[in-house]
Amino acid sequence: FRLLAVPSNSKIASVADGITSGSYTYTSPASILDYLNKGADDLCRKCYLYTLPGTVSISIGDRSKNLSALTLSGARSMRAYYEVQYTPSSGTNSGIVSNLTFAGWNELKNYDTNYNTAANGTPIYFYEVTGADPTVGIYPPPAIAGILTVNGFCLPTYLSAPSDSFTWLSEQWQEGIVYY
Protein backbone atom coordinates (compact mmCIF):
# COMPACT_ATOMS: atom_id res chain seq x y z
CA PHE A 1 0.00 0.00 0.00
CA ARG A 2 1.12 3.51 -0.73
CA LEU A 3 -0.53 6.71 0.48
CA LEU A 4 -1.91 8.94 -2.26
CA ALA A 5 0.87 9.96 -4.69
CA VAL A 6 3.87 9.79 -2.38
CA PRO A 7 7.12 8.14 -3.55
CA SER A 8 7.12 4.37 -3.88
CA ASN A 9 9.36 3.96 -0.82
CA SER A 10 6.76 5.59 1.49
CA LYS A 11 4.75 2.64 2.75
CA ILE A 12 1.92 3.18 5.21
CA ALA A 13 1.30 -0.49 5.90
CA SER A 14 2.69 -3.89 5.23
CA VAL A 15 -0.16 -6.21 4.44
CA ALA A 16 0.41 -9.94 4.32
CA ASP A 17 -0.78 -11.81 1.25
CA GLY A 18 -2.44 -14.57 3.31
CA ILE A 19 0.35 -17.03 2.53
CA THR A 20 3.30 -15.55 4.37
CA SER A 21 3.16 -14.50 8.00
CA GLY A 22 2.29 -10.93 8.93
CA SER A 23 0.41 -8.89 11.47
CA TYR A 24 -2.44 -8.04 9.11
CA THR A 25 -3.78 -10.39 6.48
CA TYR A 26 -5.49 -9.21 3.33
CA THR A 27 -8.75 -11.09 3.08
CA SER A 28 -10.91 -8.73 1.04
CA PRO A 29 -11.16 -5.12 -0.09
CA ALA A 30 -13.47 -4.58 2.91
CA SER A 31 -10.73 -5.62 5.35
CA ILE A 32 -8.31 -3.15 3.78
CA LEU A 33 -10.92 -0.37 3.96
CA ASP A 34 -11.50 -1.24 7.61
CA TYR A 35 -7.76 -1.05 8.24
CA LEU A 36 -7.50 2.37 6.58
CA ASN A 37 -10.61 3.69 8.35
CA LYS A 38 -9.25 2.68 11.75
CA GLY A 39 -5.92 4.33 10.95
CA ALA A 40 -7.65 7.56 9.90
CA ASP A 41 -9.71 7.57 13.10
CA ASP A 42 -6.63 7.05 15.23
CA LEU A 43 -4.77 9.82 13.43
CA CYS A 44 -7.67 12.27 13.80
CA ARG A 45 -8.19 11.44 17.48
CA LYS A 46 -4.56 12.06 18.36
CA CYS A 47 -3.52 14.83 15.99
CA TYR A 48 -6.69 16.87 15.42
CA LEU A 49 -6.01 17.10 11.70
CA TYR A 50 -9.53 17.45 10.37
CA THR A 51 -11.37 20.70 11.16
CA LEU A 52 -14.87 21.43 9.97
CA PRO A 53 -17.82 23.63 10.91
CA GLY A 54 -21.05 22.01 12.00
CA THR A 55 -24.46 23.62 12.45
CA VAL A 56 -27.42 22.93 14.70
CA SER A 57 -30.70 24.73 15.36
CA ILE A 58 -31.11 26.17 18.81
CA SER A 59 -34.44 27.01 20.40
CA ILE A 60 -35.45 29.74 22.79
CA GLY A 61 -34.11 28.88 26.25
CA ASP A 62 -31.72 26.11 25.16
CA ARG A 63 -28.72 26.06 27.49
CA SER A 64 -26.66 23.44 25.65
CA LYS A 65 -26.44 21.27 22.54
CA ASN A 66 -24.87 17.85 22.20
CA LEU A 67 -22.42 17.81 19.30
CA SER A 68 -24.02 14.60 18.00
CA ALA A 69 -26.88 16.86 16.84
CA LEU A 70 -24.58 18.81 14.49
CA THR A 71 -25.06 18.70 10.75
CA LEU A 72 -21.60 17.95 9.35
CA SER A 73 -20.67 17.70 5.70
CA GLY A 74 -17.99 15.06 5.17
CA ALA A 75 -17.55 13.92 8.76
CA ARG A 76 -19.07 11.35 11.10
CA SER A 77 -18.74 13.27 14.34
CA MET A 78 -17.02 16.16 16.06
CA ARG A 79 -14.53 15.23 18.81
CA ALA A 80 -13.75 18.68 20.22
CA TYR A 81 -14.57 22.29 19.40
CA TYR A 82 -12.75 25.60 19.59
CA GLU A 83 -15.14 28.25 18.22
CA VAL A 84 -18.89 28.81 18.49
CA GLN A 85 -21.06 31.34 16.66
CA TYR A 86 -24.73 32.23 17.17
CA THR A 87 -26.97 33.53 14.39
CA PRO A 88 -30.53 34.55 15.37
CA SER A 89 -33.22 33.56 12.89
CA SER A 90 -35.52 36.56 13.49
CA GLY A 91 -35.60 40.01 15.04
CA THR A 92 -33.45 43.05 14.35
CA ASN A 93 -30.22 40.98 14.33
CA SER A 94 -31.61 38.22 12.13
CA GLY A 95 -28.84 36.62 10.08
CA ILE A 96 -26.04 38.51 11.85
CA VAL A 97 -23.33 36.15 13.15
CA SER A 98 -22.03 36.70 16.69
CA ASN A 99 -18.81 35.06 17.84
CA LEU A 100 -19.26 33.71 21.36
CA THR A 101 -16.45 34.02 23.91
CA PHE A 102 -15.16 30.92 25.69
CA ALA A 103 -15.69 30.91 29.45
CA GLY A 104 -15.31 28.22 32.07
CA TRP A 105 -18.53 26.82 33.48
CA ASN A 106 -17.44 27.46 37.07
CA GLU A 107 -16.55 31.06 36.23
CA LEU A 108 -20.01 31.60 34.75
CA LYS A 109 -21.70 30.15 37.81
CA ASN A 110 -19.59 32.39 40.07
CA TYR A 111 -20.24 35.44 37.86
CA ASP A 112 -24.01 34.93 37.94
CA THR A 113 -25.29 33.30 41.11
CA ASN A 114 -28.66 32.92 39.34
CA TYR A 115 -26.97 30.99 36.53
CA ASN A 116 -29.51 28.14 36.50
CA THR A 117 -32.43 30.54 36.26
CA ALA A 118 -30.81 33.25 34.10
CA ALA A 119 -33.22 35.06 31.85
CA ASN A 120 -33.06 34.43 28.13
CA GLY A 121 -31.07 36.98 26.18
CA THR A 122 -28.42 37.23 23.49
CA PRO A 123 -25.80 34.51 23.98
CA ILE A 124 -22.36 35.92 24.79
CA TYR A 125 -20.39 32.94 26.12
CA PHE A 126 -19.88 29.29 25.31
CA TYR A 127 -18.48 26.66 27.64
CA GLU A 128 -17.72 22.97 27.70
CA VAL A 129 -20.33 20.75 29.32
CA THR A 130 -18.67 17.67 30.74
CA GLY A 131 -20.19 14.31 30.01
CA ALA A 132 -19.94 11.26 27.81
CA ASP A 133 -20.47 13.11 24.54
CA PRO A 134 -18.99 16.50 23.66
CA THR A 135 -21.60 19.14 24.48
CA VAL A 136 -21.42 22.91 24.09
CA GLY A 137 -23.19 25.16 26.57
CA ILE A 138 -24.26 28.75 25.86
CA TYR A 139 -24.94 31.64 28.21
CA PRO A 140 -27.29 33.31 28.53
CA PRO A 141 -29.83 31.04 26.86
CA PRO A 142 -31.12 32.59 23.62
CA ALA A 143 -34.27 34.70 23.63
CA ILE A 144 -34.55 34.14 19.87
CA ALA A 145 -34.24 30.79 18.12
CA GLY A 146 -31.34 30.53 15.71
CA ILE A 147 -28.38 28.55 14.46
CA LEU A 148 -25.21 27.60 16.30
CA THR A 149 -22.15 27.11 14.12
CA VAL A 150 -19.50 25.08 15.89
CA ASN A 151 -15.98 24.82 14.49
CA GLY A 152 -14.09 21.83 15.72
CA PHE A 153 -12.07 18.70 15.13
CA CYS A 154 -13.85 15.84 13.43
CA LEU A 155 -13.66 12.18 12.57
CA PRO A 156 -13.96 11.70 8.79
CA THR A 157 -16.60 9.65 7.05
CA TYR A 158 -15.49 6.10 6.41
CA LEU A 159 -14.15 4.98 3.08
CA SER A 160 -16.76 2.61 1.67
CA ALA A 161 -15.36 1.61 -1.73
CA PRO A 162 -11.85 0.85 -3.01
CA SER A 163 -12.07 3.92 -5.25
CA ASP A 164 -12.76 6.27 -2.29
CA SER A 165 -10.06 8.59 -0.97
CA PHE A 166 -9.49 10.72 2.11
CA THR A 167 -10.36 14.05 0.50
CA TRP A 168 -10.08 15.78 3.90
CA LEU A 169 -6.41 14.92 4.24
CA SER A 170 -4.31 18.04 3.68
CA GLU A 171 -1.20 17.97 1.55
CA GLN A 172 0.65 19.02 4.71
CA TRP A 173 -0.64 16.03 6.69
CA GLN A 174 2.89 15.06 7.72
CA GLU A 175 3.15 18.21 9.85
CA GLY A 176 0.21 17.00 11.94
CA ILE A 177 1.89 13.79 13.01
CA VAL A 178 5.01 15.35 14.53
CA TYR A 179 3.67 14.59 18.02
CA TYR A 180 1.77 11.46 17.03
The total count of helices amounts to 3
Instruction: Summarize the helix and strand pattern as letters.
Output: HEEEEEHEEEH
Radius of gyration, in Å, reads 21 Å
**Poorly predicted regions:** 1-12
Strand composition percent: 25-35%
Q: Strand order across the biggest sheet?
A: 1-8-3-4
* Alpha-beta content class: alpha+beta
Average pLDDT over all residues: 76
Distance between the termini: 21 Å
> Helix coverage percent of residues?
10-25%
Q: Count the strands?
A: 8
Query: What's the shape?
Result: elongated
The main pleated sheet reads as:
4 strands, antiparallel
What does this 3D model show about the protein?
By secondary structure, the protein is an alpha+beta fold. Helix content is 17%, strand content 28%. It has helices at 29-47, 105-111, 173-176; strands at residues 51-58, 64-66, 75-88, 98-99, 101-102, 125-129, 135-139, 146-156. It has a four-stranded antiparallel β-sheet. The chain has a four-stranded mixed β-sheet with strand order 2-7-6-5, with no helix packed on it. The longest helix has 19 residues, at 29-47. It is elongated and about 60 Å long. It starts with 28 loop residues before the first helix and ends with a helix.
Keywords:
180 residues; 4-stranded mixed beta sheet; alpha+beta; 3 helices; 4-stranded antiparallel beta sheet; single chain
